[in-house]
Amino acid sequence: MSEAMLSKVRKLLAQAEDPACTPAESAAFMSKATELIARYGVDRALLAARDPASDPVGDRVVEVVAPYARDKAGLLAAVADPLRCRCVRRRHGSGFEMHLFGFASDLERAELLYTSLLVQAAHGLAGTPVPPGEQPGTFRRSWLAGFAQVIGARLRAAETAAATGSGEPGVALVLADRSDRVQRRLAEVYPRLRTAPPRRLAGTGFASGADAGRRADLSGPEVGTGPGLDRRLGR
Predict the structure, then answer these.
(1) Which conformational region is residue 15 in: left (phi greater than 0), alpha (psi within -120 to 50 degrees), or beta?
(2) pLDDT tens for residues 88-120?
(3) What's the whole-model pTM score?
(4) Are 101 and 186 in contact (CB under 8 A)?
(5) Which of 28, 86, 152, 204 is 20 to 30 A from 187 via CA?
(6) What is the pLDDT of residues 42-78, one digit of tens each?
(7) What torsion, rounded to 10 degrees, do the Cα atoms 229, 85, 147, 9 define?
(8) In what order do the strands lie in the sheet with 86-92?
(9) How far is CA 98 from CA 60, 62, 190, 205, in A?
(10) In 3-state terms, what secondary structure has residue 86?
């Protein structure tokens, strides 16, 4: 993503975080930041329709480490799917490898957002007390599930709005074709892929995690991951 685009998004988010803003103003600034990220994805898709070499279909592997590796993998899937990427979870040691398929620009967006959201989730969990009598791991898994679900819904809404508001004829067909091409690429590599069964989580943190997901910054990372992140998630 270009520095010019990131600069615009960061300025909007700084305004959204200003204590002088009303809740309505803050929500409007946050919505605009998310809209810019989604619009970037549509613009790249339309450019690639005219010049396929500018944005090829590809894949990359993202390592997801313990603790809470399955929950982090769920967050990555929640980010990737609305951005028209597909991912396959593979067991790797105590964690997972997530094999992502998508167009180059969408893979870039997905990995940037995931890196940022993982840090934000760690900060959110660190500031959320575990209710008395509840196992920390159980609470945190349900918290992360709520966080991921809301993030996925926010991204999907932003992508839909960007597509319908682009004013470009045929954008829906362009995006549908991109999704089909990504799915075909995945099927070539994994012709016998199985869908994992749904999880059942008993913790009470879902609502708190969902609230954090609504507040999360979708602009992309400004800090990296590292050992401190795993400590904040409870290692």
Answers:
(1) alpha
(2) 999 998 899 999 999 998 998 888 778 777 877
(3) 0.79
(4) yes
(5) 152
(6) 888 888 888 888 899 999 999 999 899 999 999 999 9
(7) 80
(8) 57-64, 95-103, 86-92
(9) 8, 5, 13, 25
(10) strand
